[in-house]
User: Fold this.
Amino acid sequence: MQILEGGICAVPGVRAAGVRQGKYGLALIAASGAAAGMFTTNKVRAAPLEVTAKHLAAGGYLDGIIANSGCANAYTGPRGIEDARAMSRLLAGFLTTDETKIGVASTGVIGRYIDLPLITRLFEQAKEKLRSDGEASTQAERAIMTTDTRAKEIAVEHKGLRVAGIVKGAGMIEPNVATMLCFLYTDANFPAEILHKCLADAVQDSFNMLTVDGDTSTNDTVLLTSTGKVLGREEDFQVALRYVCMELARMMARDGEGASKYFETVVSGARSIEDARLAAKAVARSSLVKTAVYGADPNWGRIICAVGYSGAEMDPTKITLGLEGKRPDGTNIKVSLVEKGRIVDGVLDQAKEIMQGDTIIINIDLALGSAGARGFGCDLTHEYVNVNANYTT
Assistant:
């Protein structure tokens, strides 16, 4: 897997732009080809999501994406739908295409109407900046950031195929496509049906295994577009797509609202993949585990507890639990806390040392089968409360 510079613009045929005015931003992406999408499982679905889903269902093809930050345009009724369509018409007119070939996405405060005059002004600025370079990709990413503290983008090449993505997401993140806007691009020439199948598989083990705070957003959107310039094997494309989605999920966990530490829960030995995912999610989601990580408290019983209520089949007498991390000098440190249901004595100091690091791996072996899964999470800090207690004020 070769890492490339340039973000989404590393994929031939992709142009991008982004502009901001205070807390409001607008991103434009122009790239034509077969497309697929996945969306939030929340029953309250934002207007732009409904519009985009309808556009994809009409033909599985996109010529571009227009996305704003600062207002979610969610729970806004018929006016919200018309505002989202108006946004799609702005970009469709500029690209001389039909509005049904435009994806629309929004992020920000729920229950507020979008400021279309402001969006139009930002659009007029952004359309003059559309270009195919790494800076343009980063500007598009930064335009859709809300409480994010860093840009999150990646591009790779694998077996001659390129896959790249940008993602916005830091809070209101729970494993149901997470709260995010994610725009993925590839030059691999596949129809919409194959793109959707591969995207669903990649999302299941990446964004759907990510949690920051347990809240599922109204605006979660993942869009994948192929510019169709390169022939390749589906299995090679799938490997690259999964890699990109996994790395973007890690980036979001590291940039969780108020987060100071990142951790992964690696479950093995599960009876089924469903059980492995349940256990990994439960540990990553647990507020008690997250606060223990924040405080570098080796209270590993909280991890066992989360596995126990996860819904996964488990036998307390068979489970093995351990931690991995790095010392300040970069050397690896690993400790076993429970081995086949038995507590390991004299290791709490090592566990605390691991938990003082900024990256922690929690290994859980259920010893019941051969299935495994990986969850992505972050600690829960005082700053998370500060960010969300003052989100609209």
Notes: The mean pLDDT is 90.
